[in-house]
Amino acid sequence: MLTIILIVVAVILLTIGLVWLVDKFIPSKFKPVLIVLLWVLIGFLGYQTFMSVYKPIQFNKEKDKRYAQVIERLIDIRDAQLAHRQVTGVFAPNFDNLLKFIDSAKYTITQRRDTLVLDVAMTKRYGGVETMKDSTIIDTLNFVPVKDSLFGNSTRYKDMMNVPVGKEGVKFEMNAGFLETDDVKIPVFEAFVKKAVVLDDQDRDLILQENEVISVDAVNGDAIRVGSMTEVKTNGNWPKTYGANE
Q: Could you tell me whether strands 106-118 and 132-145 are parallel, antiparallel, or unpaired per DSSP bridges?
C-alpha cells in the first residue's frame, strides 16, 4: 500500500512539473502539440497508477477463491487420513492406498459397559467365599462404512488427490511416516501444493510476494499444506476464514 501511495504522489508531482515546464519554457506555437502529448502521457501514467492498485485487488480476489477450493480438498484428505489412522493405526503412504481404504474399510461401532464378575483366584483364596471384581465388557454393535461416514453419497473423495485450480493435471504431494519421540514412533502425514501451482496464470511478481507472506490472516509460506512430517500435528497452515484448520 505504501508503494501505491508513493506512485500516486509521484504521478501528481510529475504532471504538475510538466505543465509548469510547458508553460514556462515552450514557445506558444509548440504548446498545442506538447499539450496533446502531455495529456497522452498523463493518461498513460494514470492507467499505470490505476493498474498498480487494481491488479493486486483482483489478484487477491482470485487467490482467495482458489485457496478456498484447494483447502476443501485438503480437509477431505485430512479427514480420510485420520480415519485411516483410527482404523489401521497409521496414515496411508499414498493416494492409491487411501482410496482403497475409503472404498472398503468400516468403522466398528462398539458399546462399553462395566459389570461385576466372579474373581476365581480370590474366591479360591478365601476358601470358596465368592469375591467379585470389576470388569469392562465391550460389545460390537455394528459396522459402518468409512465412505458413508465421511462423504455420505458423494464421490468427491475420488478426486481429492487432484489440485482443482491453477496448473492443469497437478496432484497434491502427500507423504506419511513416523516421528520417534522418547523411543515411541508416532504416525505423521502431510499433504500440500505450492502456491505457484495454484496461481499459475497470475502475475509472477504478485506470486513471489504471496510466497513471502507472514500473517495470522493469511496462508503463510510458499505452499498450502495440512499436517507435517517434522511435527506431530494434523492442522492446516491457513486461517480459519478459509475453514477449519484443525
A: antiparallel
**Count of residues making up the chain:** 246
Instruction: Give the mean pLDDT of 178-189.
Output: 91
Show the beta-strand stretches assigned E in the chain: 106-118, 132-145, 173-181, 184-194, 223-227
pLDDT digits (tens, 9 = 90+) for 24-75: 676 777 667 766 776 777 677 676 676 667 788 899 999 999 999 999 999 9
Burial tier of 71 (Cβ tally within 10 Å: 0-12, 13-18, 19+): buried
Q: Partners of 134 in the beta sheet?
A: 116
Residue type, 60: N
Per-residue pLDDT band at 82 (split at 50, 70, 90): very high
The three cell numbers locating residue 165 = 485450480
